[in-house]
Amino acid sequence: MDDRVVILGAGHAGVQLAASLREAGHRGPLTLVSQESALPYQRPPLSKDLAGAGTEPLALRPSDFYAERDIVLASGGRAVSVDRDARTVGLSDGTVLAYDRLVFATGARNRPLPCEGGELPGVHPLRALEDALSLRRELDAARRVVVIGAGFIGLEFAAAARERGLEVTVLEYAERPLGRAASAPLSSWFLQAHRANGIDLRCNEGVRRIRRSEGGLEVDSDARSYRADLVVYGIGVQPNSELAEDAGLACENGILVDERLQTCDPRIFAIGDCANFPLATSPQRVRLESVQNANDQARTLAHTLTGTPQAYAELPWFWSIQGAHRLQIAGLSAPEDEPVLLGAPDSGKFSVALFREGLLVAVESVNKPADHIAARKLLASGAPVTAAMVQASASLKDLLRNAPIPV
Question: Within its chain, how far is the Cα of 145 from the centroid?
Answer without folding.
Answer: 23
